[in-house]
Amino acid sequence: MPNIASVLKEEILRLARKEVRNETEGLKKASAQYRSEIAALKRRAASLEKQLQHVAKKDASKAAAPTDAEGGLRVRFSAKGLATQRQKLGISAAEMGLLLNVSAQTIYNWEAGKSRPRQQQLGAIATLRGLGKRKIKAQLQELTATEEKTAE
């Protein structure tokens, strides 16, 4: 006949294991649910970060066109572009300098990339870009006529 103490001990262990299993089963389910919620939140955070980067790129491209103090758009300057523009108009560096109110040497320095025009001169260069050969020639004639009058 088995010892009553050992039978009681085994029954108590079995019931204790059953109770512990019942208690931990609820915790396991809650833990699994929390893990899945955390994973969903991480996916959502990653998605929102991508959207934020996309919006930041759009804003950066809009801000890439800086403005000057007066609120107008800044004019881009390229030495090669200035030389090409002058050749396209068929005018000399001295004539270009006359139109921009600078010396011919300054035009050569700008075209060589040795120096850059000031903001005010960039505005004058931008206005020249919009003019055709005929208007440029007319302006040159007016400027030379006024210079001849002032020289007399």
Note the topology.
Blueprint: H1 4-63, H2 79-89, H3 93-100, H4 104-112, H5 119-129, H6 133-151
Structure write-up:
The chain has 152 residues and is an all-alpha fold. The model has no long low-confidence stretch (mean pLDDT 86).
Shape: rod-shaped
- Helical fraction equals over 70%
The mean pLDDT is 86
- Beta percentage is under 5%
Low-confidence stretches: none
Number of strands: 0
- Outline the biggest β-sheet: none
Q: What quaternary form is this?
A: single chain
Contiguous helical run count: 6
SSE pattern: HHHHHH
Summarize the structure.
By secondary structure, the protein is mostly helical. The protein contains six helices and no strands.
List keywords for this structure.
mainly alpha, 152 residues, 78% helix, single chain, rod-shaped
